[in-house]
Amino acid sequence: MEAQVISLRPEYDVTTEQAGELLALQREILEKVALNVDFREILDALCKAAEQVVSNAVASIMVYDQAGESLTVLAAPSIPPEAVALLNGLVPGERAGSCGTAVYQNEAQYVVNTRNDCRWCDLQTFAHDFSIGACWSSPIKIEKDKAIGSFALSSFEERTPSTFYKQLLETCAHIVGILLIRQEKEQSLFRLAHYDPLTGLVNRDLFKEKLDSVIACSASQQKQLAVLVLDLDGFKDVNDSQGHDVGDKVLQQVAKNINGVLNRSYVLSRLSSDEFAILAGNSGEALSIQLLIGKILALFKKKILVEDYEFTLSTSIGISLFPEDGLSASDLLRNADTAMHAAKLAGRGCARFYNEGLTNSAKYKMDLITGMRIALARGDFVLHYQPQYCQKVNKLAGVEALVRWLHPEKGLISPNDFIPIAEESGFIQDLGLWVFTEACRQCKAWWDSGIPEFSLAINLSVKQLDEDNIQKFQEILLAMKFPIHNLELEVTESLIMHQESLAALHKLEALGIRISMDDFGTGHSSLAQLKYLPISKLKIDRSFVKDLSEDENDRIIAKTIIAMGHSLGLIVVAEGVETVEQQEFLVQEGCDLIQGYLLSRPLSAEQFSALFNVE
Fold first, then answer.
1. Number of H-type helices and E-type strands within the chain
2. Fold type of domain 204-354
3. Which end of the chain has fewer CB atoms < 10 Å from its terminal CB, N or C?
4. In terms of pTM, does the model score above 0.85?
5. The domain 5-192 is classified under which CATH number: 3.40.50.2300, 3.30.450.40, 3.40.50.720, 2.30.40.10?
6. Over the chain (615 residues), what is each successive 10-residue block's mean pLDDT?
7. Would you call 229 helix, strand, or coil by DSSP?
């Protein structure tokens, strides 16, 4: 009985048996895809399946290299390695054999005899050495019908392809195209999930996977490894001054610079915005780590050039070691991060190794942050008011509102202990808004009860200088009908010199709120700068008041500040006045207001009310 002929495509007529072979081949490959078999194994299996159909022939798959200029062998399980090496780098053209010509012409090439076909003129030695009699090749197409490679069957005898063999060749090329698209999408998804799109570095998840893998290896070999966490100092200023586009390019350059000093055994990751991590593999020895730290810190001594800008950044580095500082990726990263924050506290631009004391310190901070939030909700924060007295008329001129934490178990907690942590954690925004609201409410109540009006001074943190907070201040003042001319906000000299802060202070001044410069003399402002600042009052820092009786230099500084402030039309306040000698000197030099324990300690609201016989 004659075999029935069926048509898979109009131009190809194959028998039922042959169609079954093609379907079996496709089913075999589909099963491997479904079982998530390795991509290379699937390609090898496809080549071997085609070789079983076409006897005395070997199959190969070639694709463009990354540069898109020449072809490289992707799969050829039955071709000798030396032949593969010779095929790699084949440049498509009209005389580049069957494969190179198929890609160049973008259509199938059926060379029946390699010895006398012009398409094989330049590959005669190869054909002779490896006994290639015939070679058929079909282009692999995945996008816009453009060839990106070829699937080929090379026969060891002169041979004309049958209709079925042509169909087989085209089917295999089509399958490879599908597999390449799938592989490309999988790689794209993998990169999206595991790599930072901006720098191309591994992200936190993949870094932890690699770290866990290296930990397991190091544990079995009893070797050390190190994890370094790097945070860029002052990077926020780059984004704020030049925008995020320039900031992104700075991060890319930083990543490139760091990668340049690392060898292949290291893994560099971008953990977050301006935070990076390095896995030092089995290079945890103290000397090699110190050398690496030195190289990284040296990098940041050079200016970073991006577009037409120059940036000078530093980095704070924290280091944790396996197994001393942790047995898991999470532990090592957390402890390196803790050490990095210690480096920042030590002055930035330096490195610190982790130790257990840092964890205790971090735990103390976290407990304090949690405690502060509970305290604010429970009403454990209270305000005390320290009077400021006018020396000319010897009467109350103002008060400074000072926050105190009255802990139900620990008693009074010093602001020196919790204010820095509140600022570092961002809790200062909530606490500062409560202080602002409560101080304004209390003073308004006093004035409404008949106490003569005076100035209310409230300390302001840099983290409160944003549009949202300024809007809230305005709403609170309007709701209370607070006399804005009685309000002044105190900011430190270092804070007021930042351009971003200065713009916010101008907005507050425009609302009618006066600005007082606290701790004057400890920062970097000059007389030339002072005349442009939106301030109405200078406070002489207590460090210059403390030794006025004994230190001639402090007397000169205080005298100069008073004269300079008056020349600019500013009110001058001396804080920390504790002796009569200090008071007499300041009065003699014309200091306007005095604040300190000599005249009054900070008072509770009840104690302050008692000064005026107000309940």
1. 22, 24
2. Alpha-Beta Plaits (3.30.70)
3. N
4. no
5. 3.30.450.40
6. 37 61 74 76 91 92 90 94 94 94 94 95 94 95 84 94 90 89 78 84 90 84 85 82 83 90 88 90 65 87 83 88 87 91 84 77 76 91 94 88 91 87 85 95 94 93 82 93 93 66 82 85 58 84 87 89 90 93 92 93 93 72
7. strand
